Amino acid sequence: TKVGGRNGFSVFDASMREQMQERRDLATGLRNAIGRNELELHYQPLVDLPTGQTGGYEALVRWNHPAKGVLNPDVFIPIAEESTLINELGEWVIRNALAEAATWPDHLTIAVNVSPAQMRDKGFLRLVANALAASGVQPQRLELEVTESLFIRDEEEVLKLLQSFRRMGVRISLDDFGTGYSSLKYLQAFPFDKIKIDRSFVSGLLDREDCQAIVQSVIALAKDLEISTTAEGVETDDQLEALRQRGCAQVQGFLFSKAVPSRNLPFNRTEGSDE
Ligand code: C2E
Ligand code: CA
Ligand code: CA
Ligand code: CA
């Protein structure tokens, strides 16, 4: 629609066109990124409470863009999700995360983010089974992180898929809990092993009563349903202490570490090698 006169419209139009061109360029670059080895996985520790020991790592994808430098997934995952590119990217992520996890101490879990479109792909279950077999990683070590947006369509299909993963031994985590189409009925109806409490609630934990109430109720409810809890985005000791007191099972955040390449994980680092 035209906004204002001819001039106002053309300015608006030009910046829109620029944005669309930018997205097209990123999509084209991304299509080649896998073959050119420009994608990289970084790993962020998931720290168990009350022991304080690392129970596993979440794989977070990065794109070493030839011109723009390191791009975070918020920039390119949404673009990949507009086409079947997300399936290709997702397969790369699962295969590479499992191949790397195969070299880690085998008590450590590996968590991988999965887009709704990937989950809905007919070949996804087999892809995961193949990648597990190829890597030799026990299915019990793999956690698939899904978001609530997965449940707005095809509930029956999704339920069957999650049950199949459960039979394989693969764990399912509900990511970003509380931000989406949250419904308590999903917690009851779907076989989740873990709820990840979104960073937005953790960041308000110390000074906002609503955040405190939500975090407290989610942990209590999860306990009743025998689902584990991980709090995301823990940045301070006070947040950690508040979560510990409330019985949260696992924490993740910059307080412990940002996501780093596999070669920089503690068990891969030899003394004296700083980088
Ligand atoms: P997410 O799954 O919620 O991942 C957590 C994000 O929060 C990561 O951002 C992580 O670096 C950041 N984070 C961790 N701890 C802290 C903290 O203490 N403070 C703050 N401010 N941030 C923290 P990242 O790596 O940029 O990833 C963004 C999102 O991109 C992820 O959110 C996830 O939804 C998506 N993503 C990442 N990797 C993949 C992937 O391989 N496949 C798919 N489909 N999505 C991915
Ligand atoms: Ca996640
Ligand atoms: Ca999350
Ligand atoms: Ca989040």
TrEMBL record:
It comes from the Bacteria. Residues 23-273 form the EAL domain. This is PAS domain S-box-containing protein/diguanylate cyclase (GGDEF) domain-containing protein. It comes from Novosphingobium mathurense.
